[in-house]
Specification:
The complex is a heterodimer of chains A (508) and B (341). Chain A has 17 helices and 22 strands. By secondary structure, chain A is of the alpha/beta class. The chains are: A alpha/beta (508), B mainly alpha (341).
């Protein structure tokens, strides 16, 4: 299906020139150029963490660039505010939609700009409100009414509400962050038609996506980012999945790999046809062997975190079985998982992994407090002693184990989460993004700890969106795509190309 | 002792000294003993409330539970000739059961604690009034329980000071609650769940059970103070007995450093909070302030206290952030230079 026929029109109304964004220790954007002409559909692609979202946040006025020029209608400025961006006609359709569940469609579209009756009370003019929304609905061919409560709408319909909101602001550019990641095929098709209709009206679209076939379907141009740098732009004629993947990879990965001391043993954790809530019609099977690090790669939203949560008993298992050392086990709560020696280091350590206000000591002992008892009370001396031991072992940099965890750096916080579990003889450790928000030095230390653990017989399942990490640390890689395993790779087959192929649902 | 508790103690001493200067009757043995008795009675259910607040909930039915269980206790021993020890156990059991119901509704049914206990407040008050047909329940002439009365409402002379037994009870409850909250596994779980229920669950804590237990403890302690209060007042008019007591309890807990967001507070603080409230009550009487202003004085002092605390916290935080930023700048400077090159 070819939806885009006209070439991009006239000259660009929006140009980003030489934009950089530097965070302490990280270059998120490195001299990026991007221009947008009226009626142009641009696909922004790249791996997780390539800088796509940062670039879009610069456009939306949320992030102030460290360098470069933004030219809107030939007016140059160093950065945009959110108000500037709205005035320039730039609108966002967020991945997590920013809508009010407790309002109806029209209320959401005109939130903060409701038409009012005259008079001191400024009552909302409901008639005018609904009348204004009607043409927007028709323009998008939406199948719901202006007064439909938002809660009753599907995700795809809510997305249309966001787009209507953008149009009501006279948007010239609509930015969509992974608009199709949670849509069904029919819904995706409809969104593609909406994009074509907007394009025909002269509205430009930038969309971030991981689904390369959508890019070939509707984009005029694809811009590829890698490590904050723009590594290429493909015109309509050049848009093939192979060409895109070729641009997305190709960074030289430093070899971090330390081989295990002994070949992996028998399988410790078997996951057999496990089904989670997010992907109710997909089943996942994989095994983690004693002494190995199994990397679990995949794009954001491919169901990896959900799998980890289900194994650890946070979310219910909707089907399938989990076997530990060959024995079927039932895990309904995190407590049950912990009793079996299966521990999770969660993705979001601030909300799930740690109690930030409590001390290192208290955090470390929390899952295992009962073993610190003396006469029914917590033996704080032994507790502190263990915290000290873990601090030495994991090199947690703090003068005092009584300091609150919230005051530590990301790397040290992650080590505290690890210390919790290492005090209790793990059989299986599940790491969800082990080094997210961790500085380079601590990263290497954490990798060393992983290897020492597997050499001691622990089985590790490591979920990671960091390509360098997956390839550099794992002994074997499983790749997930849309809720199912799309393939396994042995060390000999490790390459960015292969992982990415599997992650987007192709075969190697 | 926490810094917060210490400043509360200083505040109490300052207020006490000022009142004693203006009206020396404040430090008469009789007045101090009576005030201590009030502290004993109010302290126990304030500690009860603190358990629930620390776990991140709220209990609004304290006053109504005190009325209902007080009425039932008197009825059991006076009209139904139940042995007072048995009656004591029954009433405590009743309190625990109420706590169990509240905790279960909050966790398993996911109803907000405010709503659950607000309904409790209305239901138990109504039940108490219906049970006595709105009549005052009390001890008739000739009915007396010397042992029980001595145990609950008596006073023992300690070095010339008539120490009310309610204070003895409070001391015991405080000691046990302190150990439970600050030294036991359950106490640690209470703070953990109150602070961040999700992280607690990820650490394998059965959060629901912890929350339910907090309400059960609260119910049991409230029942105990219901008995003490019934024996102290000796007559209960079910329409007003114990009304607003939940607010005294919440006020004491907040003064004592509990956050209504959960996860914070100390037992010593709660007791000191109770002391401050009772000293203020006493101050209103002794300084000739119209007693109708009673609540207004208390409200003002609590507000000022919380404002002062907030001010100090924010000043501290700003200082910490400034320090952190300086350190971050020092750490980031070489990196940014390297990137710029």
């Amino acid at each position: 299906m070819l939806l885009s026929v006209q070439p991009p029109m006239s000259e660009p109304f929006l140009e980003l020139v030489d934009i950089s964004k530097i965070y302490p220790g990280v270059v998120a954007l490195d001299h990026v150029d991007l221009s947008v002409s009226p009626g142009e559909v641009i696909a922004l692609i790249g791996e997780n963490g390539a800088g796509k979202s940062t670039l879009m946040r610069v456009l939306g006025g949320v992030v102030e660039p460290s360098g470069g020029i933004i030219r809107v209608d030939r007016v140059e400025r160093p950065s945009l505010t959110v108000a500037d961006a709205i005035r320039a006609g730039i609108a966002f359709v967020h991945q997590e939609l920013n809508l009010f569940d407790n309002l109806d469609v029209a209320g959401n579209v005109y939130i903060g700009r409701e038409p009012v009756h005259g008079g001191p009370l400024k009552l909302i003019d409901r008639k005018r409100l609904y009348a204004q929304v009607r043409p927007l609905l028709d323009r998008l061919g939406a199948d719901f009414e202006p007064d439909a409560p938002l809660v009753e709408l599907s995700l795809a319909q809510r997305q249309l509400v966001e787009i209507m909101k953008a149009l009501s602001l006279d948007a010239r550019l609509v930015i969509m962050d992974e608009p199709t990641s949670s849509l069904t095929l029919t819904e995706t098709d409809r969104l593609m038609r909406v994009i074509a209709a907007l394009k025909a009206d002269g509205v430009s679209i930038i969309f971030i996506t991981h689904r390369l076939n959508e890019v070939t379907q509707c984009a005029d141009r694809a811009v590829v980012l890698r490590d904050g740098r723009m590594v290429g732009a493909l015109t309509r004629a050049e848009l093939t999945p192979a060409a895109m993947i070729k641009l997305m990879i190709g960074r030289d990965l430093k070899s971090l790999y330390v081989p295990p001391a002994a070949p992996p043993g028998g399988s410790v954790l078997d996951i057999v046809d496990v089904v989670t809530d997010t992907y109710p019609d997909r089943a996942v099977s994989l095994s983690v062997r004693r002494g190995e690090i199994l990397g679990l790669a995949g794009l954001v939203g491919s169901g990896r975190t959900e799998l980890a949560r289900a194994i650890f008993g946070i979310d219910p298992l909707r089907g399938g079985a989990v076997r530990l050392e060959g024995e079927p086990i039932r895990i309904a709560t995190p407590r049950a998982a912990i009793e079996h020696g299966i521990y999770l280091i969660p993705e979001d350590r601030k909300s799930s992994g740690l109690l930030l206000d409590l001390s290192i000591t208290e955090n470390v002992s929390l899952p295992d407090l009962l073993s610190y008892l003396r006469f029914w009370l917590v033996n704080t001396a032994r507790e502190a002693e263990n915290a000290h031991r873990q601090r030495e072992r994991l090199k947690i940099r703090t003068p005092d184990v009584a300091t609150s965890v919230g005051s530590l750096s990301g790397g040290n916080q992650q080590k505290v989460v690890l210390a919790k579990w290492l005090s209790m003889r793990p059989k299986v450790l599940i790491f969800d993004e082990p080094t997210r928000g961790v500085d380079v030095g601590a990263k290497q230390e954490i990798y060393d700890i992983l290897r020492r653990l597997t050499d001691a017989g622990v089985a590790i399942l490591m979920i990671s969106s960091d390509m360098e990490e997956v390839i550099g640390v794992s002994d074997r890689i499983a790749v997930m795509h849309e809720g199912a395993i799309s393939g396994f790779l042995d060390r000999g087959q490790f390459s960015e190309h292969n992982v990415l192929q599997l992650a987007v649902g192709h075969t190697v | 002792m926490h810094k917060k508790d210490l400043s509360l103690l200083v505040l109490i001493l300052v207020v006490g000294t000022v009142v004693a200067f203006i009206n020396p009757r404040f430090i008469l043995v009789g007045n101090l003993s009576n005030t201590a008795n009030q502290v004993g009675l109010f302290g126990i259910f304030s500690i009860a409330e603190a358990f629930v607040i620390i776990v991140g909930g709220i209990e609004l039915s304290v006053g109504s539970v005190i009325a209902l269980l007080g009425v039932l206790f008197i009825d059991l021993i006076v009209n139904r000739d139940v042995n007072w020890i048995a009656a004591f156990c029954l009433i405590i059991g009743g309190g625990l059961a109420i706590g169990l119901v509240h905790g279960t509704l909050v966790t398993r049914m996911r109803i907000q604690p405010f709503v659950v206990t607000l309904c409790g407040l209305l239901i138990y008050r109504g039940a108490a009034r219906y049970y006595t047909e709105d009549a005052t329940a009390g001890f008739g002439f000739g009915s007396s329980f010397p042992t029980l009365e001595w145990l609950t409402a008596g006073r023992t002379n300690v070095l010339g000071f008539p120490l009310p037994h309610s204070v003895v009870a409070l001391i015991i409850v405080t000691a046990v609650a302190w150990v439970v909250l600050h030294r036991s596994v359950f106490g640690r779980y209470l703070y953990a769940v109150g602070k961040n229920e999700e992280a607690a669950r990820y650490s394998g804590i059965r959060a629901n059970r912890v929350v339910i237990s907090a309400y059960v403890v609260c119910g049991g302690l409230t029942a105990f103070s219901a008995i003490l209060l019934a024996m102290y007042t000796r007559s209960i008019s079910p329409a007003v007995h114990g009304s607003f007591y939940e607010l005294y309890a919440i006020a004491a807990a907040v003064l004592g450093g509990c956050s209504l967001r959960g996860g914070e507070g100390s037992i010593i603080g709660v007791v000191l909070g109770t002391v401050l409230l009772q000293v203020l009550q006493n101050l209103v009487n002794l300084l000739g302030i119209p007693s109708s202003l009673n609540f207004a004085v208390m409200g003002t002092v609590i507000l000022i206290g919380v404002l002062a605390d907030q001010y100090l916290v924010q000043r501290n935080r700003r200082a910490t952030i400034a320090r952190g930023r300086r350190q971050a700048n020092v750490a980031a400077a070489p990196l940014e230079q390297a990137n710029a090159e």
